[in-house]
Write a structure and sequence with these properties.
alpha+beta; CBS-domain; three-stranded antiparallel sheet; two-stranded antiparallel ribbon; 5 helices; 34% helix; disordered C terminus
């Protein structure tokens, strides 16, 4: 099965000058936890997650409306293509420890978003991945070395 068959087409987006309160509103309206940041032609520049917004507001002591998307730290965005297989998407998710991938053209133009949830819902159906493959991806994403405990002396 191809990514384009499971992805959410035309997802909510924002621009670099949008503030995080606007991004939160788009997340709320679209019932999602990630918004790609795109330029004027729809090329993906970054992604902002609900967690990113919480951390930015809390660590800066600012309201989300006082922080613009361009002020957020930018990490390389891992994307897949509409014609990739769902197994390809799972591999990318596991390798990069992400639960959602923007789906872009070869030129980086946004076409959709595919999430681990999208894939899990169809696991085991004909021409999809198995539940075991989804679970394996989840383990790769969520399994992290335990932090070293620091105790006060």
């Amino acid at each position: 099965m191809k990514v384009e068959q499971l992805m959410t087409p035309s997802p909510a987006t924002c621009g670099m000058t949008d503030n995080l309160a606007q991004v939160v509103e788009r997340m709320w309206d679209a019932n999602c936890g990630i918004v790609p940041v795109v330029d004027d032609i729809g090329r993906v520049l970054a992604v902002i997650t609900d967690r990113d917004i919480c951390v930015a507001a809390a660590t800066r002591g600012l309201a989300p409306g006082d922080i613009r998307a361009e002020e957020m730290p930018r990490k390389p965005v891992v994307c897949c293509r509409p014609d990739n297989t769902v197994k390809d998407a799972l591999r990318l998710m596991a390798e990069h420890r992400v639960r959602r991938l923007p789906v872009t053209s070869d030129k980086g133009i946004l076409h959709g978003i595919i999430s681990l949830d999208d894939i899990a819902i169809t696991a085991g159906a004909r021409n999809t991945v198995s539940a075991a493959e989804v679970l394996s991806t989840m383990k790769a994403i969520y399994t992290q070395p335990l932090p070293v405990a620091h105790h006060a002396a």
